[in-house]
Amino acid sequence: MEQLTIVSAINKGLRRAMAADSKVLLMGEDIGKLGGVFRVTEGLQKEFSDERVIDSPLAESGIVGTAIGLALNGFRPVVEIQFDGFVYPAFDQIVSQMARMRYRSRGALSLPITMRIPFGGGIGSVEHHSESPEAYFSATPGLRVISAADSHDAYWMIQQAIFSDDPVIFLEPKRRYWQKGDVDTDADLSSAMPMFSAKVLTDGSDCTLISYGPTVVTALQAAKFAQEDGVGIEVIDMRSLSPIDMHTIATSVRKTGRVIVVHEAPGSGGLGAEIGQRIMETCFTDLKAPVLRVTGYDTPYPASRIEEHYLPDADRILDALEKVMSY
Amino acid sequence: MEQLTIVSAINKGLRRAMAADSKVLLMGEDIGKLGGVFRVTEGLQKEFSDERVIDSPLAESGIVGTAIGLALNGFRPVVEIQFDGFVYPAFDQIVSQMARMRYRSRGALSLPITMRIPFGGGIGSVEHHSESPEAYFSATPGLRVISAADSHDAYWMIQQAIFSDDPVIFLEPKRRYWQKGDVDTDADLSSAMPMFSAKVLTDGSDCTLISYGPTVVTALQAAKFAQEDGVGIEVIDMRSLSPIDMHTIATSVRKTGRVIVVHEAPGSGGLGAEIGQRIMETCFTDLKAPVLRVTGYDTPYPASRIEEHYLPDADRILDALEKVMSY
Amino acid sequence: MDGFDSVVQLLDSTGSPVIDSHYSSALDNSSLLALYRDMVLVRKLDEQATALQRQGELGLWAPLIGQEAAQIGSGRALAQRDYAFATYREHGVAWCRGIDPVDMLRFWRGTMHQAWDANLHRLYGYQVIIGAHALHATGYAMGAYLSGRSGTGNSETDQAVVAYFGDGAMSEGDVNESFVFAATYQAPIVFFCQNNQWAISEPTKRQSRIPLVQRAEGFGLRGIRVDGNDVIACHAVTAEALDRARSGGGPTLIEAVTYRMGAHTTSDDPTKYRDGSDDELWRSRDPIDRLRIYLRANEVLNDTFQSDLDAEATSLAERMRIGCRELPDPDPLSMFENVYCAPDARLDEQRSELKSILAKMGD
Amino acid sequence: MDGFDSVVQLLDSTGSPVIDSHYSSALDNSSLLALYRDMVLVRKLDEQATALQRQGELGLWAPLIGQEAAQIGSGRALAQRDYAFATYREHGVAWCRGIDPVDMLRFWRGTMHQAWDANLHRLYGYQVIIGAHALHATGYAMGAYLSGRSGTGNSETDQAVVAYFGDGAMSEGDVNESFVFAATYQAPIVFFCQNNQWAISEPTKRQSRIPLVQRAEGFGLRGIRVDGNDVIACHAVTAEALDRARSGGGPTLIEAVTYRMGAHTTSDDPTKYRDGSDDELWRSRDPIDRLRIYLRANEVLNDTFQSDLDAEATSLAERMRIGCRELPDPDPLSMFENVYCAPDARLDEQRSELKSILAKMGD
Ligand SMILES: Cc1ncc(C[n+]2csc(CCOP(=O)(O)OP(=O)(O)O)c2C)c(N)n1
Ligand SMILES: Cc1ncc(C[n+]2csc(CCOP(=O)(O)OP(=O)(O)O)c2C)c(N)n1
Ligand SMILES: [Mg+2]
Ligand SMILES: [Mg+2]
After folding, report:
1. How far apart are CA D211 and CA D207, in angstroms?
2. Would you call the peptide bond into B243 cis, given omega within 30 degrees of 0 as the criterion?
3. Does residue A213 contact residue A147 with C-beta atoms inside 8 Å?
4. How far is Cα D276 from Cα D261, in angstroms, rounded to an integer?
């Protein structure tokens, strides 16, 4: 067991994957000597050479597009997008090319690409540095989207993503980068929890609280307060945004009958809509109240001095809890 | 009253807007002499000169990006994206720039841009010509997204989009382009039905069928069959995908208690999820059955010889109807 | 070449050899005959596909007529181990890579997005998104170098990559970013731009006021402009650029000046935007005619070869007609395959749904 | 200029005038003094902002130190009626456009995305997405021509547009597409690329192996390379390019060769990727020093002016310190404003929700 921040857990996960397979290579802006603006790739270029940790020109479509070519040629590229807000220039390569290569070639070509994207707000930064773009990707057939909420998952899931033959968008909860947690780095990759499984973090019978990434911590805080008030909350860390582990979710909902989904992205058209709709389809007669969403508001990300009011917090979750309990 | 195809209704709408305001200009690939690959802009360059109907270089980000500059300089650009599948290279300009200009400038700058996009499948075409990208846009704060399902709406809504000071994505139901309908071209723009209102097309008390764009016709067909079987269906053409006219929808749902949403885009993460979730939030106690979705499957758009099986049809809607009626 | 600056030409439009200060042809007579045969057959292939579309057998077709020399000249310069990425119009290149013409039709008939084994033929399938594949090609080329399969100095095994695209594509961000990446990493790639004067209805000058080849200098690539209707020059120029790429000499942009003699696609009506005045000029520069004249004049091509070839073309066309009509429609349930490598519960549900619908329909 | 080919220079790093075959300075002594004052003040502004970030008053700051000549020289060449689009680093340009330094801080403190009236100052706000604004600038310039506000031949009213960006931005698709559009429509625009040798940790050669200015030729733009640390040359070159653009002479790409003397931003640690060996060389080319030496040598700058200027800088800094701390946080409810022009029911609901939360908190 090691106590690691999420940053260093990912770093160690990358190192282990690179050591295990010489076809794993890293590409992105400033990931070499600098080690990335968040230092996630620190030391890796020195260890593995600048042919495996490649500083790229400043062009995101170029990064993803050439990663596709590299993958076609047998590599397992792991590309870093410096911040969430800079992924959109690569959108065509992601949704029209990366997501479809296997489909259009009827299985002949697969693209084992991992796109690492630090995402979400709460770090007091300027415009375009606090985005939650997951809904665009989880709505795109052919992509897999996962997010780790703690160091343990960060370490294992990045490796699972890299060794997945499907392209994976790996969303890193930027504002939790420096949060520490225990990681058993000695275990075997095959013994890690499956990449697409949700994880039940707390046990409770009154309401299910579903989240992922940076707001898992927020959900846990809210659950603690509720517990103190005698309301039992089952917190689920989705971990996988596409596919959604409906089995784990439905099992919980059948027990609690009440659900709140929490994420930072704007509510309308966000992942919470899909989760709520799926729960309605699957557990209609079990539901005692509508699935509610506690999310970022339907605005562009606001100026950072007021971002605390934009981001879901424990209070807003507790308000929603009050509502679902009142049905 | 004139009998017009959707193509010629949009053409006439564009012409009228251009005649009314010299700041309206058209830009896109092949829209000049050729009149666009669907002939929507036919004759307009000849009538209004090549300074108002501008053939652009082959670069979608460039088209949207320069349209933003033109709009900042007082124009009302109407840009054509040749096919749905070619909009993604412009994604960054759309979501990071066009959608946010007004927000980030705190109202000082607005972008009265209309993006015309022929969308959807069913025309037997090759890859990337049959996409339904609406969920990406309707999930983006700052954009408005509308779609006309008939010639009348096509004529009026294109003009409303052009004279909106918010950027509007105008989705044209490609496979219905040649469908004819009555248009009262003599009326006044101000007397047209508001752009963001949904329209109730048929009256019924058993189930609400919600759709937009090319599948409105499909929904009407299904409703007719159901009616023959004595099941009363209220068909709603959403017209506006963002914002969603929840008032009209909720009014119907309170009456019927059952809902089916129909669209061509893949179900997961599609607009149907947001509609279903919103209905659950708003009308939970009125619902007699879960809101169901009849949509494209969660795959990339398939080869055209099997697209008929991908696209929602009346049979699939009637199957869903059977399900919701069985609750 | 009339109206175009500094264009490499080895055979002019009258069929006369041209001396170039740098390039010469390494092709013997039988190679020239082979190129001639290729061009005649792909033109026939193209005509037949166009006819099949008119008969309703294909949804669409993008004719290559006029561009045979550019595609065959460059396509035959590729070694088997090289890899090519092309657009929707490179039927001639596909021919050179050994793709069965009937397989080409699958895409246009709508039975498959990609019909052939890209790794076997070392040709990626038809790409529709303008310019996107230029980045794939560049990444593939970077990979060839990184994995020691290019730039080693072994002229038997070193590989190169070719990316085909048109004059219109030169405006897309992706193509320009490809130039940046190729130059930065000195990737073993040749960008082969067929300037056929038109991007659907837009003349090349809508994309650039200066010759497209000059774009190369701006990015630090080598640039060569070649008569795209001269199959010998296209071959020579491409062969040299490939050699250079394979040996670590860096990327090249080739602009092949040619002409789209037909419509953009079978859905297009060129009379809307071009008056036909150029058509005659370009007919006089026909890529096949000039080689025929040369081969005839030099008694390389005789009547027997020509009539055999005509017969071969006729039977190719017949094979296409029959093959096209026999192409099986895909199993509707196959639409759920290969979205992912890993199994997917949601897709399984949807497959079951469609399966039961199909079963009902079958009743 | 040492190590850089064919760079326009009018004042060398020792403060001696240089004769250029084409360019000369149109600036009289009082104009030169004014440029000197601008540069001294924006450097102070920059130092003060950096200090405010260190003190926790700003979330971030992107220092301009080293780039004063490029920004002031070009910024002062703009006419009031011209329009500029800049990145996050163009504080010197913002200064020239009359932006209050305290307003510049709003963005970096996180109180506003855009702090000033773009149309009033004819400077669009700080743009974060690398290269995106180059297209906005191009479109704006196309609009100036289309609406008869440029290229009319009236040198008093014709307008031009400037787009600022860095060496890294030259790789983005958007910047290259801007070149295409600008060239095709002969838009009245000047692309001003400050090559400060670094894009965060990546040296310019990661973007291009050849001088960036050569990119211009590839697109049919005029290209000029200027000593970006020579304010006089930057002014002259920009003024000429603007004149040309305004009069319908077409677009220009200027590469201003300069150096980022500080960190990329206050979050950056340059010791991770550059060893400081170049720092000294570039300190000897300091843009302010050389003009001071020249002005002193020619007795244009005297002690009184210098000490007045120092006092002005001190009080500017003080004003920034006070102003920054006094910048009001936005009303949280303002986050719902201006998403749309038209009213929005959903946002109204959400506003009410936040309002009641705030009210509860207030209790
Ligand atoms: C990204 C994108 N935008 C637009 C289109 C529509 N389109 C198909 S072909 C074409 C013209 C291409 O011209 P060019 O690159 O010269 O190739 P050519 O067709 O002449 O071979 C256009 C605009 C597309 N396929 N992809
Ligand atoms: C599209 C996009 N990608 C990445 C970034 C992150 N980023 C911010 S500044 C920068 C380097 C820019 O270098 P350059 O263009 O030379 O400008 P400079 O910072 O040197 O002034 C990068 C990579 C961004 N802001 N936008
Ligand atoms: Mg072309
Ligand atoms: Mg720089």
Report:
1. 10
2. yes
3. yes
4. 10
Best probe residue, ligand 2, of D67, D126, D130 (max atoms within 8 Å of C-beta): D130
pLDDT at C363: 67
Residue with tokens 């080869």: B303
Domain locations in chain B as residue ranges: 2-191, 199-325
How far is the centre of ligand 3, averaged over its atoms, from the C-alpha of C204 (Å)? 7
Question: Which entry of B128, B129, B152, B247 is annotated as an active-site residue?
Answer: B129
How many angstroms away from the CA of C150 is the closest CA of chain A? 12
Q: Pick from C180, C206, C215: which is nearest to D207 by CB?
A: C180
The CA distances from residue B308 to B177, B271, B305, B319, in Å, are 18, 21, 8, 16
Residue A142 has pLDDT above 70, yes or no: yes
**CA A82 – ligand 2 centroid, Å:** 10
Q: What is the dihedral of CA A300, A306, A310, A315, to 10 degrees?
A: 180
* Spans of chain C, pLDDT less than 70: 1-2, 363
Residue of B nearest to D346 (CA): B243
Whether D260 is in the pocket of ligand 2, judged by its Cβ within 6 Å, is yes
B-D C-beta contacts closer than 8 Å: 135
Cβ of A37 closer than 6 Å to ligand 2, yes or no, is: no
Q: Which residue of C has its CA nearest to D181?
A: C207
Residues 42-101, chain A: which have Cβ within 8 Å of D? 55-59, 61-62, 85-86, 89
The string of DSSP letters for A121-156 reads --S---TTSS---HHHHHTSTT-EEEE--SHHHHHH
Task: Report the greatest alpha carbon distance in chain C.
Answer: 74
Among left, alpha and beta (phi > 0; psi -120 to 50; other), residue D59 is alpha
β-pairing, C161-166 vs C83-85, is parallel
End-to-end alpha carbon distance in chain A: 45
Cα torsion A22, A25, A30, A32 to 10°: value is 10
Which of C85, C127, C130 most suits a substitution to test ligand 1, by most atoms within 8 Å of the C-beta? C130
Q: Is the Cβ of A292 closer than 8 Å to some Cβ of chain B?
A: yes
Q: Label residue A58 by pLDDT band (50, 70, 90).
A: very high
- Domains of chain D in sequence order: 29-330 (3.40.50.970)
Model confidence pLDDT, tens digit, residues A168-179: 999 999 999 999
Label residue A262 exposed, middle or buried (CB < 10 Å: 0-12, 13-18, 19+): buried
Which CATH code is given to the segment(s) A2-191?
3.40.50.970
Backbone angles phi, psi at C256, to 5 degrees: -100, 115
Distance from CA of A83 to the nearest CA of C (A): 20
For the domain made up of A199-325, give the CATH fold: Rossmann fold (3.40.50)
Number of other residues whose CB lies within 10 A of the CB of residue D68: 32
From the list D174, D183, D215, the residue facing C219 with the nearest CB is: D215
Does the model's ipTM exceed the 0.95 cut?
yes
Which residues of chain B are within 8 Å of residue C360 when distances are taken between CB atoms? Answer: 315
What residue in C sits closest to B311 (Cα-Cα)?
A: C354
Tell me the pLDDT tens digit for each residue of A61-113: 999 999 999 999 999 999 999 999 999 999 999 999 999 999 999 999 999 99
How many angstroms separate the CA of residue A208 from the nearest CA in chain B? Answer: 16
Same fold, A2-191 and A199-325: yes
Q: Which of A218, A238, A232, A195 is nearest to A295 (CA)?
A: A218
Q: Does B64 touch chain A (CB under 8 A)?
A: no
Q: What is the pLDDT of residues D136-192, one digit of tens each?
A: 999 999 999 999 999 999 999 999 999 999 999 999 999 999 999 999 999 999 999
Catalytic residue among A128, A129, A247, A309: A129
Q: What percent of chain D has pLDDT over 70?
A: 99
CA C176, CA C219: separation in Å to the nearest integer? Answer: 9
pLDDT for C1: 65
